[in-house]
Amino acid sequence: MYSEGSEGFYTDDFMFDVMGIEELPSALYQYTSLASLEKILASRTLRFSRLDTVNDPEEAMASDVALAASSVFVSCWSGTEVEQIPMWSMYGQNLSGVRIRLPSNMFVGRKKPMVFEKGGALLTAETWHSINRKSPAMSTNSCAIIGPNKVYYSDDPAYRNRPLVYRHAGTAYFYPHDLGMVKGRHWSYEQEWRFKIAAFSFEGQFPDDEYFNNVTLDLETYPVEAEALFIPLAPSAINELEVMIGPKADSTTRNEVERILGEYATSATLTHSLIKIR
Asked: Which of 230, 221, 217 is CA-nearest to residue 71?
């Protein structure tokens, strides 16, 4: 069991020994709508949604930082090649949308993710993103993308609602490694992998002063301004795109997908779901 006195549980040992992860997936799958497919390909970007705007209201809670979920942006995927009917139903336009497949090193620069001792896998893109907060809170600029990392499913509050800040001798240490990496067991059917971008740097050190406690940690008065980030995809990754049409999609849907791919991703592979369903 995770100890609240530690600096976080999501480590390389936890991934390998507890979660049973043997290696990172080389490709990832996302169930989505035709409209989202077109937005991704037209913009050549991937949307990272702020965690307080997603469908799980219990995402990324912290025992010592209110509204912690608003400081994390995620892009959610499946690492499972086998089709999942619940995923088609919930995210794939009620079985009539699409499932996309992209290589896990999909961002500009095609850097491969590496697993670190704390926080799991991380990669760097050859583009920068900014997370702006209301002044006088500090904004951040980074090229780091955390992941892809597999979500851990637990109902234990020691995992679900943990502290982020540790204080010693006038210094505050911020450890957001685990933030956004745990969901309740009722979500476990998703077997989710996610990329994550955080407003606070891993293991940041701050003076334990009034500014840190009343400005930096006050995400209500000095909120993160954007609800989403849009991270550029590598053109070569889009060339490897595979699109599967949902099991209840009709000929009109297929024609629309063909139009989208013909306009934005001519090298993409198009297939149809193998699931038979009325």
From this structure: 217
Task: Report whether pLDDT(74) > 90.
Answer: yes
**Residue 218 token pair:** 């006050």
Query: Under 8 Å CB-to-CB from 25, ≥6 apart: which residues?
Result: 79, 104, 148, 193
In terms of DSSP bridges, do strands 182-183 and 152-153 run parallel, antiparallel, or are they unpaired?
parallel
Residue 79 CB partners (closer than 8 Å, separation 6+): 25, 28, 29, 148, 150, 191, 193
Taking only the tens place, the pLDDT of each residue in 94-129 is 999 999 999 999 999 999 999 999 889 999 999 999
- What kind and span of H or E run contains 145? strand 140-150
φ, ψ at 14 (rounded to 5°):
-65, -45
C-alpha–C-alpha distance, residues 118 and 67, integer Å = 23
Q: Residue 192 is encoded by which pair of tokens?
A: 């989710």
Interior/surface letters 235-263, b for 16+ CB within 10 angstroms, e for the rest: eebbebbebbbbbbbeeebeebbeebbee
Crossing angle of helices 34-43 and 251-264, in 10° steps, is 10
From the centroid of its chain, how far is CA 172?
Answer: 27
pTM above 0.90, yes or no: yes
Q: Do 163 and 64 form a contact (C-beta atoms < 8 A)?
A: yes
Q: Which helix (H) or strand (E) holds 140?
A: strand 140-150
Choose among 31, 26, 63, 54: nearest CA to 178: 63
Q: Which of 10, 35, 63 is nearest to 194 (CA)?
A: 10
Supply the pLDDT for residue 6.
54
